[in-house]
TrEMBL record:
InterPro entries given in the database record: WH-like_DNA-bd_sf, WH_DNA-bd_sf
Protein name: Transcriptional regulator
Gene3D superfamilies given in the database record: Winged helix-like DNA-binding domain superfamily/Winged helix DNA-binding domain (1.10.10.10)
Recorded superkingdom: Bacteria
Amino acid sequence: MSSDDLENSTIVGQTVSEKLLMLLKTQGALQASDAGKLLGTTGEAARQQFVKMAKEGLVEAKSETRGVGRPVQLWHITEKGHAKFPDTHVELTTQLISIIRSQLGEDAMDLIISAREKEAFSNYKKAMEGATGLQEKVERLVSIRCREGYMAYSSVEENGDILFFENHCPICAAAKLCQGFCRTELKLFREILQANVERTEYILSGHRRCAYRITASRS
């Protein structure tokens, strides 16, 4: 399959360019050979498509040394590539935050964030009804956050710790302007799960995703 064939094909309703962006978004940097395998095509076809996407500023290649031998070329999603994923009403959101702060002050902004937190807590608490353990609660949280556009998933480590990941932030523009949104979300997770929740990766700190380690609270 040629690069042109790749570009013109669709996979699950997406162009291959969109599919490659989704792979980088959800799995991090990839070699073209690995991306090709995941798409069911050749590494060379994937590489050619990445080159086209790089010209559009959606991805970039970086060399990484892995032990003995030549460095490998890894493809990374760029900020422009991240922007292809929905950031809910980004322009309207940023304008409203700026207007609220300039016209009503920081206290008004805090009230809005607090009201949003209370509404979210009520909705999440209702979704947790009947959950019998921490793992089930996290599974329900994953479902909620996926519906809200966070591309969430979780995994359980051998020691019983639960890792919770969000590959996308649909309110990233608002969070950049006011990190109170992120602070209240962390608080919300702790209250809803009734567990220890530690943020280990943070999009606003330059990581590609937000990640959390969840452990049962000690009585």
